[in-house]
Amino acid sequence: MNGYAIVPGMLTADECAAMAAQYEQGQLFRGRIVMAQHGFGSGEYQYFRYPLPSTVAALRQALYGPLAAIANRWHGLLGMDTRFPAEHAQFLARCHAAGQQRPTPLLLRYRPGDYNCLHQDLYGEHVFPLQAAVLLSQPGADFEGGEFVLTEQRPRQQSRVEVVPLTRGDMVIFPVAERPVQGARGVYRAGMRHGVSRLRSGLRHTLGVIFHDAT
Ligand SMILES: O=C(O)CCC(=O)C(=O)O
Ligand SMILES: [Fe+2]
């Protein structure tokens, strides 16, 4: 168990191109973040508005159910009380009632020299513990560098890192902030962060799918 799963070919090359091209359609988004202005790295991203584009809405909806089963198992293993409902709409109602009403799916854009610092996508009290990202550009052709990395911090140990090997259209599913790890004396909580190494050349787009909404 490496702390992530890859789903190859989640989007076709054409779907990736169409999704990346949406970056230029400002009316689709509720906000734009220039990462350097916040110390998040270099590059930028935009959060979609509701209603989400159909491809994004469909992905978020379809992924939620199977991931909720995993999330519930994780919460059981970690002794956490929260359980996740079977339908994403039900979980979103919980977020919205708590003031987390703004959509979190996003498109990211990296140019040469850009990178994304290690982070956790937490946006309020309600946290769905898994998220997904689809790489929309082709490594080695559209860009060089720009690898998706995950770090895992186990109690009383130094952090370890995984470089996640993605090609265009692949989806990675990974923990938002923590995951249960089986140790010699039971299950413990590993802290997780993700980021993107520096782009050496080219242009890289990603679609990020986060299941909780934001305050
Ligand atoms: O660009 C990437 O691969 C990382 C995107 C990211 O941080 C996210 O989807 O939450
Ligand atoms: Fe992220």
Kindly give the count of domains.
1
Number of helical regions = 3
Bound molecules: 2-oxoglutaric acid, fe (ii) ion
**pLDDT below 50 for ≥5 consecutive residues: which ranges?**
none
CATH superfamily: q2cbj1_9rhob like domain
Biggest β-sheet, characterized? 7 strands, antiparallel
Q: What is the helix/strand order?
A: EHEEEHHEEEEEEEEEEE
Secondary structure: number of strands: 15
Overall pLDDT confidence: 97
User: Beta-sheet strand percentage?
Assistant: 35-45%
Percent of residues in helices: 10-25%
Cα-to-Cα separation, first versus last residue: 33 Å
Structural class: alpha+beta
Question: What is the CATH C-level name?
Answer: Mainly Beta
CATH-scheme architecture: Sandwich
Give the overall silhouette.
Answer: globular
The strand order across the widest sheet is: 1-11-7-15-5-4-2
Keywords: Iron, Metal-binding, Oxidoreductase
GO molecular function: metal ion binding; oxidoreductase activity
Protein name: 2OG-Fe(II) oxygenase
Pfam family, one: Oxygenase-NA
Give me some keywords for this one.
215 residues; alpha+beta; Jelly Rolls; seven-stranded antiparallel beta sheet; six-stranded antiparallel beta sheet; binds 2-oxoglutaric acid; binds fe (ii) ion
Structure description:
The protein is of the alpha+beta class and 215 residues long. It has one domain: q2cbj1_9rhob like domain (Jelly Rolls). The protein contains 3 helices and 15 strands. Strand 12 (178-183) and strand 13 form a beta hairpin. The radius of gyration is 17 Å and the shape is globular. Bound molecules: 2-oxoglutaric acid and fe (ii) ion. 2-oxoglutaric acid (AKG) binds at residues 108, 116, 121, 133, 148, 194, 196, 206, 208.
